[in-house]
Design goal:
42% helix, 5-stranded mixed sheet, alpha+beta, 485 residues
Amino acid sequence: MQDNDIINLLGIKDSTIKILSVATKDTEKTVEFEKRIELHYCPLCGCRMHSKGVYRRRVNHPILQDGYRLVMIFHQRRWQCSNKSCREIVADEVSFIDKRKRNTNITDWLIVKAFKDFSLTAAQIARRFNVSDTYALHTFDRYVDMKRRDLTEVICVDEVHLEIPRVCNYALVIQDFISGEPLDLVVSRRKEITEPYFAHIPAGERARVKYIVSDMYGPFIDYSKTYFPKALSAVDSFHVIKMINQKIKKYILQLIRNLNDIDVARQQKLEQELGHHVDLVHSREYKIIKHYQWLILSNNRKIDYGHMRYDRRFGRYIYPSDIETEMFKIDPNLKDIRDLKEVYIKFNDDYVGDPEGARKGLKDVIKKYQNCKYRMFNEVADSLSNHFEEIITSFILVKKYGAEGFILRRLSNGPMESLNRVPKDMKRNARGYRNFDHIRNRFLFAKRKNAEMLGHPKPWREVCFNTGLKRGPYKKTIKSPKLKK
């Protein structure tokens, strides 16, 4: 293989270097190179320089590391001025290695590109490119500084639990509903942070927002009144159904506790009669309610009632409808509760794209919940009344453009729920973060399609934080305690 072929294979764009040798041992490939010898003249006095010898400089170049571990050795020659009154010394330099660096310039670019995968930790990226964790983190911080993107006509807002000590607990995520990309990640959802943040956004840009989609958190709903005067708030239908299911689940959990208390009382009575310990065996009713509560909580339309399944508790194949019958025998209220839940789900599905029809339908749902005998649905009726207009707004359809034109999509916080999981996964993989700016930049860099990198990286002094503390010794010695005489 010719030298030019090896240079091209390694992705090196420097015609002044010369390959000395290429050796392969097991899975390690070693490439030794030097700069072509040419006349050197002193940059200070202009006198001719002579060679002072060559020293071997080991360089990290992460090309071909998928199958091999590449080792590059630069035979760097030093030159000294022949003028006795000058004696200036310079060393050979190549274009793809910066001065006093152990990594080639492409290494930094590959490290930053690897941070695009939010499932990787900084330690995993550092091991891939044979650098330290600190170097990988600082390299990313030097090249990436994400800016807030302009607000769009439809935005989604939600909080994410980051729990960064002395910085924030819940951060605010702002997303473009149309593209699904994050617009920004704000350090906190508290009013003292969000008020100056939105105030710095030009009024014309804020007036562009038509809809704000969120959950039922009060401050989010008030954004349309305080920061976006021309926007309407929309409460995501998922959160309304989630609220109903949480109340039903609370009722079912209490039912399971009651059945468990009956089983415990029966066990204690049996122990007194027999005079020895008896293991607790839960009743058939307890097991049915505990393991089949999903039949009450799930959307009734999505349950396949024609599919039989073997159940060891019944000892035979059984239909979901048979299990429901057994559950309703245990607690007849479960049937009414399930049917009342389905009233809202049916309303939620029937009026998509018809806000005026939904207005009348929601009034009927509220009236039915108010007149029922279950307190949980009376409370749901109060919540529906308090967020009446926001729920009606969620039935509006907006155009979402794609590669094949546009589709009509209902206002929803569904895209936000999937996006909101990304910083949570990042926090879990990294075992927590202490630098909010870093997790913000990485989150936006990972989830934006055309994420920008800085053309000129920040200087190292801006990303290397000096704590002012004196560095301790590298090797810690453990002193053995002195024994008392």
